[in-house]
Amino acid sequence: MNKYHDTEVIINNKRYTLSGYESEEYLQKVASYINSKHNEFRNRDAYKFLDSELRNILIQINIADDYYKAKDKIKEIEADNESRGKEIFDLKHELISAQTKLDSAQKEIEELKKELNETQKKVVRLETELNEAERNR
Fold it and tell me: What is the pLDDT averaged over residues 77-96?
């Protein structure tokens, strides 16, 4: 079982203690992300004039937006990965089929070479017999 961690972090210039089974590095990474969202909004002029509740809602909406965009990107990547997997499978199948055809063609070539060799031997033998028959006449 994972170890439970308490990690002190600073979010929006305030100290908080985050707790969980995730690593301390992970908890710091989460705090850093939230802090970057606060900084991103803090740099906007219109944000300064909003009350704290509306500020928090805007940050939450922005974080949710990032989350859903990341989820959609993951689905897109998974679909692309599945498509490429199918393409790889099809290419492997084609390669195996081509290899089988090549092996078959190579066997046929070898058989035809043997047949050619036997036929050439037969031609030589028949020519020899013909020459001997002509001499004996």
Answer: 97
